[in-house]
Amino acid sequence: MSKFHIIITPQTNESQLINALACAASKMGATAIDGIYIKRLQDPGLKPILSNINHITTYEISQSTSITAQQVMEVLGNIPALDSLITISNTLSKEWLPAFAALNNIMPITDVIDIKNQTFKRPIFAGNLIETLENNQERALISIRPQFFKAPTNPSNTSFSNVSFSPKNTSSESLLSTDISDLPDLLTAKKVVSGGRGLGSKDNFVKIHQLAKQLNAAVGASRAAVDLGYISNEHQVGQTGKIIAPDIYIAFGISGAIQHLAGIKDSGIIIAVNKDPDAPIFEFADIGYVGDLFEVIHALMT
């Protein structure tokens, strides 16, 4: 198991994510790493990278308003002799990776946070336990949490090529929000500002974006905020969203359900602002403030 393919789709900071994937492959003993970048025609190309990738093939999906799990499956199905695969653990990979595993009779190992050759560690039971697994298969199918993998910044001699791809599935149903933000990527950001039901409306949630921009932070959200339509599910933090580990996590109007706390437990400092003094998040936070979240946001921005 010495050759690997990494799978990447458009996100805020693809270069950093590619470096994390390359780091994970190297920890598994990779001697050759190739990349597969799946994008829409209108998405930007990859920026220069600093990692030990031999070649990256960009598959440009035509006639598509979004990238779906079915389209990723079609691209991979048209590539002969795929080797072991490593991808980022995110909303989209949670859709296509289990299906690909079933079709290819491979047991996937997901949400990996540490690798030593063919031994993997990942959190289970909402992050309360760490499971250690060994892979004895001829091929590996892995998803990683990128914040736990740091690649060396060595000059890269990566070559690139482009392939136009017309999938059978051109549905506009989106399993991946492909809006590219100028803010840091949520999975790898050092600072995250999140909002919950307490914001009250989609219009009010704009204040979270404004504060995040001023602090150069990523934007997160609770499941309640996503379900209410305040923001897309690509920003959802928690057990059913993204698991993050920023240096600073600021939560506005988030009560702190156990599913949300599972997504932020590895954060350095957690700051919670909520008008409810009994909100569960205060038991978990390093710093808590009971009061009007809008007043706090205004104070931080002035």
Note down, in words, how this protein is organized:
There is one protein chain. By secondary structure, the chain is of the alpha/beta class. The protein has two domains: 3-165, Rossmann fold (3-Layer(aba) Sandwich); 191-301, TPP-binding domain (Rossmann fold), CATH 3.40.50.1220. It is 24% helix and 27% strand. The protein has eight helices and 15 strands. The chain has helices spanning 14-27, 69-77, 93-104, 202-215, 223-227, 258-261, 281-284, 293-301, and strands at residues 3-8, 32-40, 55-61, 84-88, 109-112, 114-116, 119-124, 129-134, 141-144, 159-165, 191-195, 218-221, 248-252, 269-274, 287-290. The strands form three sheets. Strands 5-9-4-1-2-3-10 form a seven-stranded parallel β-sheet, with helices on both faces. It is globular, with a radius of gyration of 20 Å. The termini are far apart. The model is unreliable at 172-178 (pLDDT under 50).
Write down the overall geometry. globular
Low-confidence stretches: 172-178
CATH topology of the largest domain: Rossmann fold
Taking the alpha carbons of the first and last residues, their distance comes to 55 Å
What is the architecture of the largest domain at the second tier of CATH? Answer: 3-Layer(aba) Sandwich
Proportion of strand residues: 25-35%
Query: Structural class, judged by helices and strands?
Result: alpha/beta
The CATH class label of the largest domain is Alpha Beta
How are helices and strands ordered from N to C? EHEEHEHEEEEEEEHEHEHEHEH
Count of runs of 4 or more consecutive helical residues: 8
Give the count of structural domains. Answer: 2
